[in-house]
């Protein structure tokens, strides 16, 4: 009886699957989440929309699977925070989403500490991470209740416990990366010294039990969504890397038990904590990927994401896009950067703009791949890819062309919940290794580079100049 209900609570939706070790994924249920985009860089979600989506998707998946469930696993967005009343579980604010840029002022105030913060946490002082958002929320919204990432709130609703996991905590700027414990000095620095913080659990730990999905089941396998995908794609050895193409694109590479501090402007986090070990990963982000595609859709340039492949021409005819629709992350760290299109003429058509967006995403991921290689001290030889936009052959081919490495497409649409489910299985059976719980997989498609190395290099150089210009415009320091 080891079927697992695994829930991926993400930015644009919640997906629940029931995965059976023999039969694979036997049920899937999805619920859409609609974040609100506010002027000034605010991005919010209604906490009840998150909770209801978890409960509804979970219940629908359990009902469709029609079998005993051994545990529920939960992957979360990582850096999205809210304030809530620990006595009642009532939210006191909206959820402030990881894409929200409003905490930039908090980071600016702490600029002189940026280096020591980076050394302690492995992260860059940027509003992307949880602590600046928590501080901003405390100053601007409420001083009541507790302020935590969304996983803690959701798990509290499920189990009554007050807990997060080591990978999520490592996305906060409040965790000492070497000891994987809250760092009181960092808490003071962000003005959060008096906050009640959740206990940090391992990812393969049973943290409580819930009846929220009908049957009583243990809750185990808490992890950040990106790290969960890293697990599912079998990136268990140092040097292996994956990129998830979701709301944003997130490139993560396993660095083993060494919490290597990036010298290339990337960030380092806990990959997972399991079997008493804490492997780490370096990561880089493209903040807007499906969000950029949705923008194309909102503008009427495409009807749906599935239109893109038929529409795009072989060449963007010199149109170049830096898809910095919500600022630029690693290695530029320019939260106020905005997207750019250059190289347009009167002959430019919508299909050139669409291809330029796809190539811009691929170029940014390729840039991150080069930086990961720098930190690892060896080139990436392949990239494992998952997420909804791996369905776009145009995007994946652009990725192989521009990065000049083969791209292996993960065969399942649910890497994130599958990774969380593997950790939950380890929690139920400590004799099971993570490698055994994950199992093997073969790519459905392998995209080989078709561009020459010279063409790719020329494109990357031109694109990098455009990105630098965007970052410079966004740098108001
Ligand atoms: O919700 P997703 O799948 O776009 O992922 C969110 C990221 O983990 C944010 O860091």
TrEMBL record:
Any one Pfam family match given in the protein's UniProt record, by short name: FGGY_N
Molecular function GO labels: kinase activity
Domain Carbohydrate kinase FGGY C-terminal intervals: 241-427
This protein's UniProt keywords: ATP-binding, Kinase, Nucleotide-binding, Transferase
Keyword Iron-sulfur: no
Residues annotated as signal peptide: none
Source species of the chain: Streptomyces yanii
Protein name: ATP:glycerol 3-phosphotransferase
Domain Carbohydrate kinase FGGY N-terminal: 4-231
Organism phylogeny: Bacteria, Bacillati, Actinomycetota, Actinomycetes, Kitasatosporales
Protein family membership: Belongs to the FGGY kinase family.
């Amino acid at each position: 009886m080891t079927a697992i209900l695994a829930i991926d609570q993400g930015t644009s939706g919640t997906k629940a699957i029931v995965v059976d070790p023999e039969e694979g994924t036997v049920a899937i249920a999805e619920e859409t989440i609609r974040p609100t985009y506010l002027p000034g860089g605010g991005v919010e979600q209604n906490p009840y929309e998150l909770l209801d989506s978890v409960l509804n998707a979970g219940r629908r998946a359990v009902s469709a699977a029609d079998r005993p469930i051994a545990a529920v696993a939960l992957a979360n967005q990582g850096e999205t925070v809210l304030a809530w009343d620990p006595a009642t579980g009532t939210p006191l604010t909206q959820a402030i989403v990881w894409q929200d840029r409003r905490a930039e002022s908090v980071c600016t105030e702490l600029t002189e500490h940026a280096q020591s913060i980076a050394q302690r946490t492995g992260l860059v002082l940027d509003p992307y991470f949880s602590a600046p958002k928590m501080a901003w929320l405390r100053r601007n919204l409420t001083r009541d209740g507790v302020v935590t990432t969304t996983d803690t709130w959701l798990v509290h609703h499920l189990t009554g416990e007050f807990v997060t996991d080591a990978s999520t905590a490592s996305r906060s700027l409040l965790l000492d990366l070497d000891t994987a414990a809250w760092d009181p000095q960092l808490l003071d620095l962000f003005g959060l010294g008096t906050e009640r913080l959740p206990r940090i659990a391992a990812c393969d730990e049973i943290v409580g039990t819930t009846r929220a999905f009908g049957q009583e089941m243990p809750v185990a396998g808490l992890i950040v969504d990106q790290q969960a995908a890293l697990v599912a794609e079998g990136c268990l050895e140092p040097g292996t890397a994956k990129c998830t193409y979701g709301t944003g694109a997130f490139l993560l590479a396993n660095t083993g038990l060494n919490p290597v501090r990036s010298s290339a402007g990337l960030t380092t986090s806990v990959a997972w904590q399991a079997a008493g070990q804490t492997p780490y990963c370096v990561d880089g982000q493209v903040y807007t990927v499906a969000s950029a595609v949705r923008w194309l859709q909102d503008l009427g340039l495409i009807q749906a994401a599935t239109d893109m492949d038929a529409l795009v021409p072989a060449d963007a005819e010199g149109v170049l896009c830096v898809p910095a629709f919500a600022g630029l992350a690693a290695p530029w760290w320019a939260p106020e950067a905005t997207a750019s299109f250059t190289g347009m003429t009167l002959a430019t058509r919508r299909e050139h703009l669409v291809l330029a967006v796809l190539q811009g995403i691929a170029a940014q991921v390729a840039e991150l791949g080069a930086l990961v290689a720098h930190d690892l001290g060896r080139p990436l030889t392949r990239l494992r890819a998952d997420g909804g936009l791996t369905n776009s052959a145009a995007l994946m081919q652009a990725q192989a062309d521009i990065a000049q490495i083969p791209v292996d497409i993960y065969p399942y649409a649910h890497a994130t919940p599958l990774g969380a489910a593997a950790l939950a299985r380890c929690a139920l059976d400590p004799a099971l290794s993570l490698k055994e719980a994950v199992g093997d997989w073969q790519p459905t498609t392998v995209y080989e580079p078709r561009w020459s190395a010279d063409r790719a290099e020329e494109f990357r150089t031109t694109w990098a100049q455009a990105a630098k210009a965007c970052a410079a415009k966004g740098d108001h320091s």
